[in-house]
Design a protein that fits this description.
This protein has one domain: Monooxygenase (Up-down Bundle), CATH 1.20.1280. The chain is an all-alpha fold and about 90 residues long.
Length: about 90
């Protein structure tokens, strides 16, 4: 799979999109504030990632499953912290 250029592109693209939420997560953990966070956006993204994982499972496509699964977990954590910090800052 990783010897195939398409597989390498798939993993590289997935890694880029997977780590894109990490700066937001680190900012939430550092500041413990979520005033400028769009939970609506994150919920839609969560649903999209869930569908990508499901699609990857149906196609038996490891790059799609692994990278979107990681994104799903990070996005879920951002949502939970976002809700927690919105409530605690009121």
């Amino acid at each position: 799979m990783l010897s195939d250029p398409t597989g390498i592109i798939g993993f590289a693209a997935g890694i880029c999109t997977s780590v894109s939420l990490l700066p937001q997560l680190f900012k939430l953990l550092k500041n413990k504030k979520s005033d400028d966070l769009s939970l609506f956006y994150l919920i839609i993204l969560f649903l999209g990632l869930l569908l990508w994982v499901w699609y990857g499972i149906r196609r038996d496509d490891l790059p799609i499953i692994a990278t979107n699964g990681f994104s799903l977990v990070v996005n879920g954590i951002v949502i939970v912290l976002g809700v927690r910090y919105k409530r605690s800052n009121k």
